[in-house]
Amino acid sequence: MKAIHKFRGVAAVELAILLIPLVIMTFGMTELGRAFYYYNSLLKSTRDASRYLSMQSRGEGEAQARCLAVHGETGCGGEALVPGMAAGMVQITYEAGVETGHGAIDLVRVTVTGFPFSSLVPLVVTNMVFGPISSTMRQGAS
Hints:
Blueprint: H1 2-6, H2 10-54, H3 62-71, E1 90-100, E2 103-112, E3 116-117, E4 128-129, E5 133-138
Antiparallel strand pairs: 1-2, 2-5, 3-4
Helix pairs in contact: 2-3
């Protein structure tokens, strides 16, 4: 009987020891998941904006494409798709006469640069700035 009382509370001590790393891992996984979600949303928004510009004449629709990249619509109303995103982070470039095996084509590239990811738990996952995220498409209209 006395041997059983000797081990009373051992499970609670083991749980307390293991709970700290488990909580840190949980917060780390959720924060990294949130960072991947933001990155993927930015990538999709650049793809939508470059697709929109690929159907416009060169130099037309840039303001609408920036709104599309930031807000998800060609009008600049409402909240940004990703918190912290601003129209100043969106850059649009054109390349004319790019040689391919089937002739020359024109390209349009939409790039998001300098997006700051703010971690909710900076002790586990630090704040970071994403590298350039871009999408390039063939420009059909000329």
